[in-house]
Amino acid sequence: MKKTYLLAPGPTPVPETVNLDMASPMIHHRTPQFSQVFAEAAEDAKYLFQTNQDVMILASTGTGAMEGCITNLFSPGDKVLVVNGGKFGERWGKISETYGLVPVWHKVEWGQCVKAEDLKDILDKEPDIKAILVQASETSTTVSHPIEEISKLTRDRDDLLLVVDGITAVGVYPLPMDAWGIDALVTGSQKALMLPPGLALVSFSEKAWKANESSKCPRFYFDLKKERKNLADKTTAYTPAVSLVTGLRSVLKNLREEGIDNVHKRHNRLARATRAAVKALGLNPVAPDAPADSATGLFVPEGVDGGKLVKSLRDDFGVTLAGGQDQWKGKVVRIAHLGYVDTFDTIVAVAALEMALKKFGHDVPMGKGVAAAQEVLLEAY
Questions:
Q1: Within 10 A of 128 (CB to CB), how many other CB atoms are there?
Q2: What pLDDT, on a 0 to 100 scale, did the predictor assign at position 364?
C-alpha cells in the first residue's frame, strides 16, 4: 500500500467535504437554485479579493482570465510594461503580442523580485505605457513581487493600470485589491482555492472598467462587460462549470469562517517552516530575498539529477512535488504549501525530500530539516 500526497503548486488537494459538495446531483444552470449558489459564491469572492467590485467567475483556467484582461482593457498598438521574471511573466507578454499590443519587456533575473524603482524609471522614459503587467507570485521561480510598492506607481494615474496575476497569491498572502489600488486581479481554482482546475476569477477596478469602454481588442467568450451584466442577474453569459461553482461556494464559506487574516498566517507559517527546513539541510533556496508563501524552491545538490529526484519522489515515495522549468529543468525542486495543506503535509514533504536525497547519494542529515520545520509549525499549537 502507498498513500499519495499532492504537494505541487497546482493542482492542489481538494478537501473531502468540498468533493462531496461537488458530487451533489447536477442541477440546471438557468434555475433559481443555481442562481442562489452562484450569487453566494460571487459575493464571498469579494471577501477573498478584498474588494467591493464585482468578481467574475469564468469557466476556464487562470490563463483565460489573463487573456480576458488583455482583450477587455487594451487596444492593438497599446504599450504595456511586462515584468518578465519567469514562465508566467513571459506569458503576459505573449498574450499581449497575440492581440497586437506592444510589450515593453523588463526582464528580471530568475529568483529575484522586480524593483519598483526600475519600473518607475521605465515609466518616466515611456509615458505612453498603458499598464504594468506583473505576477504577485511567480510560480516558476517561487518569487513574490512587491505589488504594494508597484501599486504606488499606478494608483494615482488615470492613464495607467496595474494588472496582477494573483493565481498563486490570492488566498495565500495579503493582496487587498481596493486598499492597494490594483486595477485587475486574477486567480484560478486549482491553487489556494483548493478546487480542481477549471475556474478563473477576475475583478476590475472602476478605472479598469473605464478603460474597458475604449478597448478595441476582439473578444467573444471572454467579454467581461457581458459577464458583469449577467452577474447582476445571478448568472453567467455562457454555461458555467456548475459543479465547480458549487465547490467554490463551499470553499469560500470555509475561508470566511477561518478568516482571511488567519488564512494568510497559516500559509506564511507553512512557508517559513519549509524555508527553515531547506536552510537546516544546507540546501540553497532559489528565491532567497523575496520568497513567496505559496511554494518554496530549492536547488538540488551538485551531482543529483533533479528530474529523476522529482520522479522518484512521486513514483517511489508517493509525494508529488514540482521540478524546475526551462533553464532550471532538472536543477530545482518546488514544494507547495498553499490551499488544503497543513502542518503534517509540510512535515511529509520535508521528510520525503530528505529520504529521496539520501537515496540519490547526497549525504543529508536525516531529520534535521524536519526538526527545523517542527520548531516553526509548533507556533500553531
A1: 10
A2: 93
Beta bridge partner(s), residue 144: 137
Tens digit of each residue's pLDDT (9 = 90 or more) over 200-209? 999 999 999 9
CA distances for 327 relative to 41, 86, 87, angstroms: 39, 10, 10
What ranges in the chain are assigned the alpha helix state H? 16-22, 32-49, 62-73, 87-98, 116-125, 147-154, 177-180, 206-214, 224-231, 242-258, 260-280, 306-315, 343-359, 368-377
**What's the whole-model pTM score?**
0.97
First to last CA, the chain: 31
Question: What pLDDT shows up at residue 201?
Answer: 98
Q: What is the DSSP string of 245-282?
A: HHHHHHHHHHHHHH-HHHHHHHHHHHHHHHHHHHHHTT
pLDDT at residue 1, rounded to an integer: 85
Give CA–CA dist 155/208, Å, rounded.
Answer: 11
User: Residue 255: its pLDDT value, please?
Assistant: 97
Decide if 71 contacts 280 (C-beta within 8 A): no
Which of the following CATH numbers is that of domain 16-258: 3.90.1150.10, 3.40.50.2020, 3.40.640.10, 3.30.70.270? 3.40.640.10
Its sign, for the CA torsion 187, 142, 374, 1, is positive
State how far the Cα of 7 lies from the Cα of 339, in Å rounded to an integer. 10
DSSP type of residue 201: E
Burial string for 24-59 (b: 16+ CB within 10 Å, else e) reads eeeeebeeeebeebbebbbebbbebbbbebbbbbbb
Q: What residues of the chain score a pLDDT lower than 70?
A: none
Alpha carbons 149 and 161: distance in angstroms, whole number: 14
Q: What is the residue-wise DSSP string for 65-113?
A: HHHHHHHHH--TT-EEEEEESSHHHHHHHHHHHHTT-EEEEEE--TT-P
Contact 317, 352 (CB under 8 A): yes
Q: Where are the domains of the chain?
A: 16-258, 259-380
Superfamily for the 259-380 domain: Aspartate Aminotransferase, domain 1 (3.90.1150.10)
Distance CA(116)–CA(85), nearest Å, equals 14
